UniProtKB/TrEMBL annotation:
<feature type="region of interest" description="Disordered">
    <location>
        <begin position="120"/>
        <end position="150"/>
    </location>
</feature>
<protein>
    <submittedName>
        <fullName>Uncharacterized protein</fullName>
    </submittedName>
</protein>
Amino acid sequence: MSIPAVEESWARIDAWLTRHAPATHATLRPPASRAGVEAAERTLGVAFHPDLVASLLFDEDLLSYAQWPSLRHVLADFADALEQALPFLGRVPLAVDGKLLWEEQRTVPADPVSPLSHATALAEPESDPPFPQRPVFPNDTESAVPAPAQGIAEGSTRRLFFVRTGRPRPEPLPDQPDVAFAAGLTPGEMLRRLGAIPATVRPRDRRQAQRAVESAWAAHRPLVRAGAVGGWAYATIEGGVAQFARPEVLRVLSAGTRVVVLTRQGPEVALTFAEDGVPCPEEDTRRVMSPREGNHAGGPWARRLGVDLWPGSTAAYTGFLAVLEEEFGIVHDPDEEGPTELTSALVLPLLDDLREREPEARVRDFDLAGLVERTPPRRLRTAVAAQLARLAAETRLDTHPEVTEALDRIRHGLPVDCDQDDPLAVRMRTLVAEVHATRTMLSGGDSGPVSEEDLTAWVARGDAADALRAFLRLPLPVAAEAVLQRRVSLHWRDELAADLGGT
């Protein structure tokens, strides 16, 4: 295939910019002079390639062409991209209001593999087999090692016994899980508020819970056990991402009551409080930070093997248990309750709080502030709702019935419930769990049935769900930014103009 000369490609680029993006064309620097090029060659002590000279004489703004065999190739591909709206370095050129803009070309795969659905087809792992209480010797009815003979009788047979021994195993460190206490609640209510998945509720001791949460059956969701002590219900998290120190969790747990939470995350141990849905100020949280000791590998399993990476934190946790008893009358020993079967369940984590903030003035080089200023609120809301519906369709968020119903109610101006336990919020929480499980599986050694395309799809749906929640909960300009920032279509500006014109 014949590659056009540099001068021909630059002429095509210049013509396209002049016609479609005159504002961008006006920002280009003038071409270099022949004398300037020759002076540069003398200064550097090199002779420029003829194609580079031709490019410099046409326009001084150079493109990086490391991915092409020559400048002639890159300019030809650049001209093709402008004239035919083809991707160039992963972005597609657009002419918008006389400017050349570049939009990332994205696709959202359909029907991604669901780690959560895959997990429902798996069986929860059984408990550990019981350890033998004493050595077993198959040829000895009393299962004991015979005492050494004092003498060998005549005619007797010598027998040699082998006794298997091993290195002494270190004692496991004390159990120190994150634990939350709520005054006056029942264990069942604690689990419900934390988002327990009904199909997974059953009694488990700590070891059963840990085996379950470390298996593919859990799909990287947290598992919580709940019990009661005195007038308090308590819950311990036995695996998965930490939950109890999150402000949204503290608010839900403490609604109508008071809550005390003891957490240990690596070097930090904290005692946090909340009352009637209000977490305590940050300065009232009691914290102890401990330096790491040794170069051992970390992880929950390390403590079970007797490896203590933060001995100071181990001591601080024990000290806070004493504080619970002294100040609240809570007597709790994780080692004692660990072997007890308590009601437990996987939980679907609560949604993060939406952050109140000022909207950006520009979104993807679009004047959002100007749009908000010149558009009546009702018309703007209708147009953003239409953009939200387009976003749900292109990310396939609208394949979920809870979302379809919500979009229909929005279109008719009806209120939409989106509290943590409402069906729409539960769907959003499920999407967050899908993203977390897929990303964690891909980052681990065994990705199982999922791929990077699945992650792309779940992230797109999760982001679209965030935009939907922003539309329901945040000021309209902030919601508009969230929706427009996530649009996938390259032509979202034209669609927005149509939505504004049709209201």
